[in-house]
Amino acid sequence: MALTESNMPGLGMKAPNFTLPDSVSGHLMTFNDIKGIKGTVVLFLCNHCPYVIHVNAELVRIAREYKSAGIGFVAISSNDAVNYPDDAPDKMRLVAMVLQYPFAYLYDEDQNTAKAYDAACTPDIYVFDSDDRLYYRGRLDESRPGNDKPITGKDLRLALDLMILSKAPLKKQYPGAGCNIKWKK
Q: 3-180 — its CATH code?
């Protein structure tokens, strides 16, 4: 596992569309299907990364809290499931059901969605405003496995609160960090 930071694409970037299968329902979903009235959070996750495992419960809490405020959520796994079978769609379905994800968990088999978002790691978090423009990208908070800092979700929560109130995005945004996306060779 190589510790990798987010690429931090420029704010204002238009949300790339996608059509990906949901690992739980099997239905194809697009960005518009998961889009929220006030904004949308796109999470690049996977099953086996210790950084994702570390924050999964907080991501679920945040999604449950902010969905009622008009924020849409989706998780996408883009890892190479051939070389990383723990990240295969059948395992994704199991993780989503056990953790009771309140959002779809989509599989990006050809990895084109991760490339379109310039995703680099898991977790990689993108927040788009009601006009589908990138408002926040980066970390959940400063907690990492083993650093003894509490998981609060404060960075993502602050960004969502500001966006809901139609305030300007945070000037200082910190990259997320985690396992690199497992690209196909």
A: 3.40.30.10
How do the domains of the chain map onto residue ranges? 3-180
Can you point out the beta strands (E) in the chain?
3-5, 19-21, 28-30, 39-44, 71-77, 104-107, 121-122, 124-129, 134-138, 177-180
Amino acid (1-letter code) at residue 57: A
Token couple for 79: 């890892």
- Residue 104 scores a pLDDT above 60: yes
Burial tier of 77 (Cβ tally within 10 Å: 0-12, 13-18, 19+): buried
Q: Could you report the per-residue pLDDT of 78-87, keeping only the tens digit for each? A: 999 999 999 9
Nearest-angstrom CA–CA distance, 39 and 127: 7
Do the beta carbons of residue 138 and residue 41 sit within 8 Å? no
Mean of per-residue pLDDT scores for the chain: 97
Listing DSSP states for 116-149 in one string gives: HHT--EESEEEEEETTSBEEEEE-S-S--TTS--
